[in-house]
Design brief:
Distance between the termini: 28 Å
CATH superfamily of the largest domain: Zn peptidases
Order of helices and strands: HHEEEEEEEEEEEHEHEEEHEHEEEH
CATH topology of the largest domain: Aminopeptidase
Helix content: 25-40%
Protein backbone atom coordinates (compact mmCIF):
# COMPACT_ATOMS: atom_id res chain seq x y z
CA UNK A 1 0.00 0.00 0.00
CA UNK A 2 3.00 2.35 0.17
CA UNK A 3 2.88 2.88 -3.59
CA UNK A 4 -0.85 3.61 -3.43
CA UNK A 5 -0.28 6.09 -0.61
CA UNK A 6 2.41 7.81 -2.65
CA UNK A 7 0.26 8.25 -5.74
CA UNK A 8 -2.75 9.39 -3.68
CA UNK A 9 -0.58 12.33 -2.54
CA UNK A 10 0.11 13.59 -6.07
CA UNK A 11 -1.71 16.81 -6.99
CA UNK A 12 -3.36 15.98 -10.31
CA UNK A 13 -6.94 17.24 -10.70
CA UNK A 14 -8.53 17.15 -14.16
CA UNK A 15 -6.49 19.29 -16.52
CA UNK A 16 -3.35 19.08 -14.37
CA UNK A 17 -2.34 15.46 -14.90
CA UNK A 18 1.28 16.39 -15.68
CA UNK A 19 2.63 15.62 -12.20
CA UNK A 20 1.00 12.18 -12.23
CA UNK A 21 2.21 11.53 -15.76
CA UNK A 22 5.80 12.42 -14.79
CA UNK A 23 5.62 10.18 -11.72
CA UNK A 24 4.32 7.24 -13.77
CA UNK A 25 6.93 7.64 -16.49
CA UNK A 26 9.68 7.70 -13.87
CA UNK A 27 8.22 4.67 -12.10
CA UNK A 28 7.83 2.73 -15.36
CA UNK A 29 11.39 3.44 -16.47
CA UNK A 30 12.76 2.45 -13.05
CA UNK A 31 10.80 -0.82 -12.85
CA UNK A 32 10.17 -2.06 -16.41
CA UNK A 33 13.32 -4.20 -16.53
CA UNK A 34 11.90 -6.22 -13.60
CA UNK A 35 8.63 -6.87 -15.42
CA UNK A 36 8.04 -10.02 -17.45
CA UNK A 37 7.79 -7.97 -20.66
CA UNK A 38 9.36 -4.55 -21.21
CA UNK A 39 6.64 -2.41 -22.79
CA UNK A 40 6.79 0.02 -25.67
CA UNK A 41 5.89 3.46 -24.30
CA UNK A 42 3.87 6.04 -26.26
CA UNK A 43 3.83 9.54 -24.73
CA UNK A 44 4.74 13.13 -25.48
CA UNK A 45 3.79 14.98 -28.68
CA UNK A 46 0.30 14.05 -29.81
CA UNK A 47 -0.56 12.37 -26.52
CA UNK A 48 -0.71 15.42 -24.21
CA UNK A 49 -0.10 14.08 -20.66
CA UNK A 50 -1.43 10.60 -21.42
CA UNK A 51 0.64 7.40 -21.51
CA UNK A 52 0.13 4.19 -23.49
CA UNK A 53 2.10 1.04 -22.61
CA UNK A 54 2.14 -1.78 -25.16
CA UNK A 55 3.14 -5.26 -23.98
CA UNK A 56 4.00 -8.04 -26.44
CA UNK A 57 3.65 -8.31 -30.19
CA UNK A 58 -0.03 -9.26 -30.35
CA UNK A 59 -2.01 -7.40 -27.68
CA UNK A 60 -5.76 -8.10 -27.71
CA UNK A 61 -7.16 -5.94 -24.89
CA UNK A 62 -6.55 -2.40 -23.61
CA UNK A 63 -6.99 -1.28 -19.99
CA UNK A 64 -7.98 2.36 -19.51
CA UNK A 65 -7.29 4.04 -16.16
CA UNK A 66 -7.68 7.76 -15.59
CA UNK A 67 -4.97 9.68 -13.74
CA UNK A 68 -6.97 12.74 -12.71
CA UNK A 69 -8.92 13.51 -9.57
CA UNK A 70 -11.75 15.81 -8.57
CA UNK A 71 -10.90 19.15 -6.98
CA UNK A 72 -11.58 22.87 -7.16
CA UNK A 73 -10.42 25.91 -9.14
CA UNK A 74 -9.92 29.28 -7.48
CA UNK A 75 -12.08 31.97 -9.08
CA UNK A 76 -12.03 35.56 -7.68
CA UNK A 77 -11.51 36.68 -4.07
CA UNK A 78 -10.94 33.07 -2.98
CA UNK A 79 -14.25 31.84 -4.34
CA UNK A 80 -13.84 28.32 -5.72
CA UNK A 81 -15.64 26.24 -8.35
CA UNK A 82 -15.78 22.46 -8.57
CA UNK A 83 -13.68 20.24 -10.81
CA UNK A 84 -15.87 17.20 -11.34
CA UNK A 85 -18.18 16.32 -8.46
CA UNK A 86 -16.41 16.64 -5.08
CA UNK A 87 -18.40 16.82 -1.87
CA UNK A 88 -18.51 20.34 -0.43
CA UNK A 89 -18.95 19.86 3.32
CA UNK A 90 -17.88 22.93 5.30
CA UNK A 91 -14.57 22.53 7.11
CA UNK A 92 -12.94 20.15 4.66
CA UNK A 93 -9.26 21.07 4.32
CA UNK A 94 -8.08 21.99 0.83
CA UNK A 95 -4.48 22.31 -0.32
CA UNK A 96 -2.64 23.68 -3.35
CA UNK A 97 0.10 26.04 -4.41
CA UNK A 98 0.39 29.23 -6.45
CA UNK A 99 3.42 31.36 -7.39
CA UNK A 100 3.40 32.99 -3.94
CA UNK A 101 3.52 29.77 -1.95
CA UNK A 102 1.71 26.78 -0.51
CA UNK A 103 -1.98 26.96 0.35
CA UNK A 104 -3.99 25.21 3.05
CA UNK A 105 -7.41 26.29 4.22
CA UNK A 106 -10.92 25.18 5.06
CA UNK A 107 -13.81 25.05 2.60
CA UNK A 108 -16.59 27.48 3.55
CA UNK A 109 -19.94 28.45 2.04
CA UNK A 110 -21.49 31.92 1.79
CA UNK A 111 -24.86 32.47 0.13
CA UNK A 112 -24.65 29.13 -1.70
CA UNK A 113 -21.17 29.94 -3.05
CA UNK A 114 -18.00 28.05 -2.20
CA UNK A 115 -14.84 29.66 -0.79
CA UNK A 116 -11.53 28.68 0.75
CA UNK A 117 -10.72 30.38 4.04
CA UNK A 118 -7.15 31.60 3.52
CA UNK A 119 -5.23 34.61 4.79
CA UNK A 120 -4.52 36.12 1.35
CA UNK A 121 -6.00 36.21 -2.11
CA UNK A 122 -5.02 33.12 -4.08
CA UNK A 123 -4.06 33.53 -7.71
CA UNK A 124 -6.88 32.97 -10.17
CA UNK A 125 -6.91 29.54 -11.77
CA UNK A 126 -5.03 27.83 -8.95
CA UNK A 127 -6.30 24.29 -8.40
CA UNK A 128 -7.04 22.88 -4.97
CA UNK A 129 -7.47 19.29 -3.82
CA UNK A 130 -8.41 17.53 -0.58
CA UNK A 131 -5.63 17.20 2.00
CA UNK A 132 -4.59 13.56 2.14
CA UNK A 133 -5.01 11.47 5.29
CA UNK A 134 -4.13 7.91 4.25
CA UNK A 135 -5.37 5.27 6.73
CA UNK A 136 -4.88 1.52 6.65
CA UNK A 137 -6.39 -1.17 8.87
CA UNK A 138 -6.40 -4.96 8.62
CA UNK A 139 -9.41 -4.88 6.29
CA UNK A 140 -9.66 -1.40 4.75
CA UNK A 141 -7.76 1.44 3.16
CA UNK A 142 -9.16 4.96 3.40
CA UNK A 143 -8.02 8.21 1.79
CA UNK A 144 -9.00 10.88 -0.67
CA UNK A 145 -8.46 10.01 -4.34
CA UNK A 146 -8.65 6.25 -4.09
CA UNK A 147 -10.81 7.05 -7.14
CA UNK A 148 -8.88 6.61 -9.29
CA UNK A 149 -5.39 6.18 -7.87
CA UNK A 150 -6.38 2.62 -6.96
CA UNK A 151 -7.25 2.02 -10.63
CA UNK A 152 -3.80 3.33 -11.60
CA UNK A 153 -2.16 1.19 -8.89
CA UNK A 154 -4.03 -1.85 -10.22
CA UNK A 155 -2.53 -1.26 -13.67
CA UNK A 156 0.98 -1.08 -12.22
CA UNK A 157 0.39 -4.46 -10.53
CA UNK A 158 -0.85 -5.96 -13.81
CA UNK A 159 2.16 -4.56 -15.67
CA UNK A 160 4.54 -6.76 -13.65
CA UNK A 161 3.38 -9.98 -15.33
CA UNK A 162 1.50 -8.80 -18.43
CA UNK A 163 2.67 -10.54 -21.61
CA UNK A 164 0.13 -9.32 -24.19
CA UNK A 165 -1.95 -6.21 -23.70
CA UNK A 166 -2.11 -2.42 -23.54
CA UNK A 167 -2.35 -0.15 -20.51
CA UNK A 168 -3.59 3.41 -20.97
CA UNK A 169 -3.28 6.20 -18.41
CA UNK A 170 -5.84 8.83 -19.45
CA UNK A 171 -6.92 12.36 -18.52
CA UNK A 172 -9.96 14.52 -17.72
CA UNK A 173 -12.31 11.66 -16.81
CA UNK A 174 -13.64 13.35 -13.66
CA UNK A 175 -14.65 16.48 -15.56
CA UNK A 176 -16.24 15.00 -18.66
CA UNK A 177 -13.44 13.10 -20.37
CA UNK A 178 -11.94 14.09 -23.69
CA UNK A 179 -8.77 12.05 -24.06
CA UNK A 180 -9.97 8.49 -24.63
CA UNK A 181 -11.47 9.29 -28.02
CA UNK A 182 -8.14 10.03 -29.66
CA UNK A 183 -6.28 7.48 -27.54
CA UNK A 184 -8.78 4.84 -28.62
CA UNK A 185 -8.36 5.91 -32.25
CA UNK A 186 -4.58 5.56 -32.00
CA UNK A 187 -4.83 2.09 -30.44
CA UNK A 188 -7.45 0.90 -32.93
CA UNK A 189 -5.54 2.23 -35.95
CA UNK A 190 -2.10 1.10 -34.77
CA UNK A 191 -2.79 -2.21 -33.05
CA UNK A 192 -6.21 -3.25 -34.43
CA UNK A 193 -7.64 -3.58 -30.91
CA UNK A 194 -11.28 -2.86 -30.08
CA UNK A 195 -11.91 -4.39 -26.65
CA UNK A 196 -11.28 -2.55 -23.39
CA UNK A 197 -11.45 -2.88 -19.63
CA UNK A 198 -11.98 0.20 -17.47
CA UNK A 199 -9.77 0.10 -14.34
CA UNK A 200 -11.70 2.52 -12.14
CA UNK A 201 -13.52 2.63 -8.80
CA UNK A 202 -17.28 2.43 -8.31
CA UNK A 203 -19.74 2.87 -5.43
CA UNK A 204 -20.97 0.94 -2.43
CA UNK A 205 -24.76 0.83 -2.92
CA UNK A 206 -27.82 -1.17 -1.91
CA UNK A 207 -26.67 -3.95 -4.23
CA UNK A 208 -22.88 -3.66 -3.87
CA UNK A 209 -21.19 -4.38 -0.54
CA UNK A 210 -17.71 -4.24 1.00
CA UNK A 211 -15.68 -7.45 0.88
CA UNK A 212 -17.82 -9.32 -1.67
CA UNK A 213 -15.43 -8.93 -4.60
CA UNK A 214 -14.74 -6.34 -7.25
CA UNK A 215 -17.57 -5.07 -9.44
CA UNK A 216 -18.36 -5.99 -13.02
CA UNK A 217 -20.69 -3.21 -14.16
CA UNK A 218 -23.62 -4.22 -16.37
CA UNK A 219 -24.40 -0.55 -16.97
CA UNK A 220 -24.20 2.98 -15.57
CA UNK A 221 -25.05 6.04 -17.65
CA UNK A 222 -23.48 4.06 -20.51
CA UNK A 223 -24.53 0.60 -21.61
CA UNK A 224 -21.76 -1.76 -22.78
CA UNK A 225 -22.48 -4.58 -25.23
CA UNK A 226 -24.00 -7.47 -23.27
CA UNK A 227 -22.24 -10.23 -25.19
CA UNK A 228 -18.86 -8.74 -24.25
CA UNK A 229 -19.81 -8.29 -20.61
CA UNK A 230 -21.02 -11.90 -20.52
CA UNK A 231 -17.56 -13.08 -21.63
CA UNK A 232 -16.04 -11.23 -18.67
CA UNK A 233 -18.55 -12.74 -16.24
CA UNK A 234 -17.85 -16.24 -17.60
CA UNK A 235 -14.07 -15.78 -17.13
CA UNK A 236 -14.61 -14.60 -13.54
CA UNK A 237 -16.82 -17.61 -12.78
CA UNK A 238 -14.39 -20.05 -14.37
CA UNK A 239 -11.53 -18.63 -12.30
CA UNK A 240 -13.65 -18.74 -9.11
CA UNK A 241 -12.78 -15.11 -8.35
CA UNK A 242 -15.44 -13.35 -6.22
CA UNK A 243 -17.25 -10.52 -7.99
CA UNK A 244 -20.41 -8.44 -7.79
CA UNK A 245 -22.70 -7.26 -10.58
CA UNK A 246 -23.70 -3.61 -10.71
CA UNK A 247 -26.66 -1.92 -12.39
CA UNK A 248 -26.79 1.88 -12.13
CA UNK A 249 -28.53 4.63 -14.08
CA UNK A 250 -25.96 7.37 -13.42
CA UNK A 251 -22.20 7.71 -13.24
CA UNK A 252 -19.74 7.02 -16.00
CA UNK A 253 -16.16 6.31 -16.89
CA UNK A 254 -13.69 6.25 -19.76
CA UNK A 255 -15.98 3.58 -21.19
CA UNK A 256 -18.52 6.27 -22.04
CA UNK A 257 -15.89 8.08 -24.08
CA UNK A 258 -15.06 4.91 -25.99
CA UNK A 259 -18.74 4.21 -26.64
CA UNK A 260 -19.28 7.72 -28.02
CA UNK A 261 -16.25 7.51 -30.31
CA UNK A 262 -16.40 6.63 -34.00
CA UNK A 263 -14.73 3.26 -33.40
CA UNK A 264 -16.34 -0.13 -32.59
CA UNK A 265 -15.02 -0.49 -29.05
CA UNK A 266 -16.35 -3.09 -26.66
CA UNK A 267 -15.76 -2.04 -23.06
CA UNK A 268 -16.64 -3.02 -19.51
CA UNK A 269 -16.05 -1.31 -16.17
CA UNK A 270 -14.30 -3.68 -13.73
CA UNK A 271 -13.24 -2.22 -10.40
CA UNK A 272 -13.44 -2.29 -6.61
CA UNK A 273 -16.31 -0.47 -4.88
CA UNK A 274 -15.77 2.36 -2.39
CA UNK A 275 -17.77 4.13 0.28
CA UNK A 276 -17.76 7.93 0.88
CA UNK A 277 -17.38 8.66 -2.83
CA UNK A 278 -15.59 11.86 -3.91
CA UNK A 279 -14.72 12.81 -0.34
CA UNK A 280 -11.51 12.90 1.74
CA UNK A 281 -12.58 9.58 3.28
CA UNK A 282 -13.04 7.17 0.37
CA UNK A 283 -12.95 3.63 1.75
CA UNK A 284 -12.24 0.27 0.03
CA UNK A 285 -12.04 -3.28 1.42
CA UNK A 286 -8.75 -5.09 0.83
CA UNK A 287 -10.58 -8.24 -0.30
CA UNK A 288 -12.10 -6.24 -3.15
CA UNK A 289 -8.67 -4.91 -4.13
CA UNK A 290 -7.31 -8.46 -4.21
CA UNK A 291 -10.26 -9.59 -6.30
CA UNK A 292 -9.71 -6.72 -8.74
CA UNK A 293 -6.04 -7.54 -9.35
CA UNK A 294 -6.69 -11.27 -9.70
CA UNK A 295 -9.60 -10.77 -12.09
CA UNK A 296 -7.66 -8.38 -14.33
CA UNK A 297 -4.83 -10.90 -14.63
CA UNK A 298 -7.29 -13.56 -15.76
CA UNK A 299 -9.11 -11.26 -18.17
CA UNK A 300 -5.90 -10.19 -19.90
CA UNK A 301 -5.05 -13.86 -20.46
CA UNK A 302 -8.49 -15.05 -21.61
CA UNK A 303 -10.16 -12.21 -23.52
Amino acid sequence: MELLKEICKIHAPSGEELAMSKFLLKYIKQNQNKWKIKPKIHFGDGFQDNIILVFGDNPRTAIFSHMDSIGFTVKYDNEIVKIGGPITTEGIILVGEDSIGKIEGKLTTKKNRLFIDFHRNIERGTSLTFKIDFRETEDFIQSCYIDNRLGVWNCLQIAKTLEEGIIVFSSWEEHGGGSVGYLGKFIYDTYNINQALISDITWITKGVKHGKGCVISLRDSGIPRKSYVNKIIDIAKEAAIPFQLEVESTGGSDGNGLQKSDYPWDWCFVGAPEDNVHSPDEKVHKKDIDSMVRLYKQLLKKL
